[in-house]
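QA checklist item 7 of 12: single-chain prediction sanity check.
[x] sequence parsed
[x] length recorded as 90
[x] structure emitted
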Amino acid sequence: MGGRFDLFFSNAALHWVDDHEAILRGAAAALKPGGRLMISCGGKGNAHDVFLALRPEMRLQRWREYFRQMPLPYFFIRPARITNGCPNGL
């Protein structure tokens, strides 16, 4: 059974997804034959300076308990990894 959409578009959201392979497979399944997948997101190292600036604040006594066990919210994939991980040559 083919997909239903001509386009799957995601902007600045893929870094919140833990399982990139699953989202790419789901997007591919939702596309019509010849449909397009367009994803825009930061790459590896993209938020490095932001995390460097936030780290001292996150360690302050008043904030520490909130950040201590918080999973890192951003996952910026390396371009080669996403190219190699695309199902069906997307």
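[x] summary fact logged: The chain is about 40% helix and 20% strand.
[ ] second reviewer sign-off
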